[in-house]
Write a structure and sequence with these properties.
Elements: H1 2-9, H2 19-38, E1 39-41, H3 49-55, H4 65-87, H5 95-121, E2 123-124, E3 129-132, H6 134-154, H7 160-185, H8 192-209, H9 226-248, H10 255-281, H11 290-295, H12 299-303, H13 314-342, H14 351-371, H15 375-378, H16 380-386, H17 396-425
Parallel strand pairs: 1-3
Antiparallel strand pairs: 2-3
Helix pairs in contact: 2-5, 4-5, 4-6, 4-9, 5-6, 5-7, 6-7, 6-8, 7-8, 7-17, 8-14, 8-17, 9-10, 10-13, 13-14, 14-17
């Protein structure tokens, strides 16, 4: 018993001088070897493009997929590296970790995602290679987004080694879940279920397994400062502006992508007004919380993902935005403190409120809209293309059932995979910090703080809503 106690509860060693370089070098060399064996250029990126044009009666270079997809790819790429990265800088003493580790796991995750998604989605059976093009790069960014969502739940509490392991496993699980939902069940478009629901429950489950009973010892570092909140708000604006591209990037050219942008645009706008309203209502004297504004204003984009290409009508897109803003803000006000106190889930960024719950809402919206689709709204060809995905033997009820099944698979994959990965990350060999040193950049980064840094009091905290001053009561 003493040996087991010493193994599991001994002092933590955060020195990653050997382990982190070893993992980065070894895994990068493995990526090079696997890319050399399996990965080739897509025909539209290959030097034989001219011959391909002649063989397929293509008359202009403008028909290359690059010109259709690259603007959306730019938007999604900015969301992954700048939007998520800056959003994670809200902690007053963990901004280096938020944006820096976001950079690390994104750069590794997209390489592994290109391989995993290629093996599941686009492995050429003639030469057993993966052909990558613009759509592959966008899908890899989507895969990384699921891991970044999970990272948000564990922000400040795990080591870079744990994050690399979490990304390796998360990308692998994502590729399997994505293949089942998109290729076998044929549902989801903008990723409400595949990306947000999976990533949310994957991260929440890992956070639950890695529960820290003494995390209150680092409560002094858990809050934000005025400047860190401003940087996080810049990340929110990057995500908000580019979210229509996120939901439409890999959709079919034409009316589907066009409709996805409009629906997402409207849903996002409605979620902003709703978030401001509910945030003001939830506090004495109606003071707004920057925590709500940084996060719940994005919930409309998450919830609109699955039904983005569907003819939900503009007013329904606004309704989805209103509902998502309400449940997300309510989650920050009520559910996050409840989950930490009673369910032992320490959700640093509130991913349950921004991703998991709106993702479930998005899956439900997709199922309902599929059930009530009709030829009078879509036309026969439009119905087959937008709702049935080419399956002539499906009814609207069957497609709605497939949507619901996809949502269940995303939740089960996230919880089941997170439980396994969480148990792996509990091993006392990953260099994670002590409870009193969580949310502190100085554990893993060379940091030079301004002399007055310690004198700046926190403005607010994520899991403890800012109490009004006695003079405001």
């Amino acid at each position: 018993m003493d040996s087991c106690k010493n193994f599991w509860c001994g002092p933590k060693n955060t020195n990653v001088r050997i382990s982190l370089p070893a993992i980065c070098f070894i895994w990068q060399i493995a990526m090079i070897a696997l890319f050399a064996i399996f990965v080739r250029y897509d025909p539209e990126a290959d030097a034989h493009w001219t011959e391909y044009m002649h063989q397929n009666n293509i008359t202009s270079n403008i028909e290359n997929d690059f010109y259709y997809r690259y603007p959306s790819f730019q938007d999604v790429h900015v969301m992954i590296f700048m939007g998520f990265g800056l959003l994670f800088t809200f902690l007053k003493r963990y901004s280096f970790g938020g944006v820096g580790f976001n950079f690390l796991i994104s750069a590794f995750g997209l390489q592994w995602a290109l391989l995993m998604q290629g093996w599941f989605h686009s492995l050429d059976s003639t030469d057993w290679t993966i052909k990558i093009g613009m759509k592959s790069l966008i899908n890899a960014d989507f895969c990384v987004a699921g891991c970044l969502i999970a990272f948000g739940a564990c922000l400040g509490k795990v080591s870079p080694i744990q994050l690399m392991v979490m990304t390796l496993c998360g990308v692998s699980l994502f590729a399997v879940e994505e293949y089942v939902i998109l290729n076998l069940i044929h549902v989801d478009t903008g990723g409400s279920m595949v990306i947000h629901t999976f990533g949310g429950y994957y991260g929440l489950t890992i956070s639950w397994i890695l529960y820290r009973p003494n995390l209150h010892q680092s409560k002094r570092l858990r809050g934000s400062s005025y400047h860190s909140d401003v940087f996080a708000m810049i990340g929110t604006l990057f995500l908000w502006v580019h979210w229509p591209s996120f939901n439409s990037a890999i959709g079919n050219h034409g009316d589907g992508q066009h409709r996805a942008v409009i629906n997402t645009y409207l849903s996002l706008a409605a979620s902003v007004l709703t978030t401001f309203a509910v945030s003001s209502l939830s506090a004495k004297r109606g003071k707004l919380s920057m925590v709500h504004i940084q996060n719940a204003t994005l919930a409309g984009g998450v919830a609109m993902g699955t039904a983005a290409e569907i003819m939900v009508s503009p007013y329904s897109a606004l309704v989805v935005g209103v509902c998502s803003g309400i449940i997300s803000t309510f989650g920050f006000v009520v559910l996050t403190p409840f989950m930490e106190k009673h369910m032992k889930i320490q959700d640093t960024c509130g991913i349950h409120n921004l991703h998991a719950m709106p993702g479930v809402l998005g899956g439900a919206v997709g199922a309902v809209t599929a059930a009530f689709a009709s030829t009078s709204v879509y036309g026969q060809e439009g119905l087959m293309h937008a709702i049935m995905h080419g399956f002539v033997d499906r009814t609207m009820g069957m497609q709605a059932a497939h949507q619901a099944a996809g949502l269940c698979i995303a939740i089960i994959s996230g919880i089941g995979g997170g439980a396994v990965v969480g148990c792996i990350l509990r091993l006392p060999c990953w260099g994670d910090p002590e409870d009193e040193n969580c949310f502190d950049d100085e554990v893993y980064w060379e940091v030079t703080l301004p002399e007055d840094e310690e004198s700046v009091p926190p403005v607010n905290q994520y899991n403890d809503q800012k109490a009004d001053k006695q003079t405001d009561v």
